[in-house]
Amino acid sequence: MSRFTDKVAVVTGAARGIGAATALRLAEEGAAVAVVDLTAESGETVAAQIREKGGIARAYGCDVADLDAVEAAFARIAEELGGLHILVNNAGITRDNLFFKMPKADWDAVLTVNLTSAFNCAQAAQTYMVNQRYGKIVSLSSRSALGNRGQANYAAAKAGIQGLTATLAIELGPYDVNVNAVAPGYVATAMTAATAERVGSVPEEHQRLAAERTPLRRVGQPEEIAAVVAFLASDDASYVSGQTLYVNGGAR
Questions:
Q1: Could you give the CA distance from residue 219 to residue 112 in angstroms, rounded to a whole number?
Q2: Distance between CA atoms of 94 and 92, rounded to whole angstroms?
Q3: Disulfide: which of 133, 142, 193, 249 matches 216 by Cβ 3.0-4.6 Å?
Q4: How many CB atoms lie within 10 A of CB 26?
């Protein structure tokens, strides 16, 4: 497939997990990919994988919580890769704790990295997209947006992603910019492995219990989320905007 030929895609938090899988998927379909993570070194492994397969990719270091840094990085990406057509807001962290024990610093950190970073990146990207009257923004929300014990900060941030998505779709739609979100359920990543350890479990057992609660009787894989992101970032989804698509194996 070559749905993204001549397109430049920026993927944040792309050094591992869903971000890495998304960067690889977009590159496989022809996009030139900016692999963005906190440091260029951390994203270089994914960028190198893309280049080894014949694709185009560069790793960029950027603190996406810093608007000035984002604007500078996006200007460099547009110059070096030849534009900016697709933005995937994937960068995120967890600082899980029960609400009554949650430090204010952990609330601030999760809201900043998971939600404010999406605002920063979308605001920087829309300049390019509006001018060329074309763009796709896909942000990662989560099933936790519906509420999850021990994740008041993360749930609030991911619910915020859905509100931000709906609003940007309204404001940017007249300029032919589609804005959507993907809300994964349980996906086997380093982040969910850390959650398992937080509750005194191990990843394998944590995944087994999650699978038992899921109609498809298994947990998701990063590549499955990447496939949905790729659809929303493509012209196959040209009339889809302002939506949050839950990808959770049928869990309610």
A1: 28
A2: 7
A3: 249
A4: 30
What is the CB neighbour count within 10 angstroms for residue 103? Answer: 11
Q: Express each pLDDT in 71-130 by its tens digit.
A: 999 999 999 999 999 999 999 999 999 999 999 999 999 999 999 999 999 999 999 999
153, 110 Cβ separation under 8 angstroms: yes
Helix axes 117-132, 152-172, angle to 10 degrees: 10
**In the predicted structure, residue 204 carries a pLDDT above the cut 90:** no
Tokens of 201: 């479990």
Whole-number pLDDT of residue 1: 63
Say which residue the tokens 């999850």 belong to.
148
Residues classed as catalytic: 154
* Ordered domains of the chain (ranges, CATH): 8-247 (3.40.50.720)
- The DSSP letter of residue 217 is S
Task: Provide the CB-side half-sphere exposure for 173 (13 A, CA).
Answer: 14
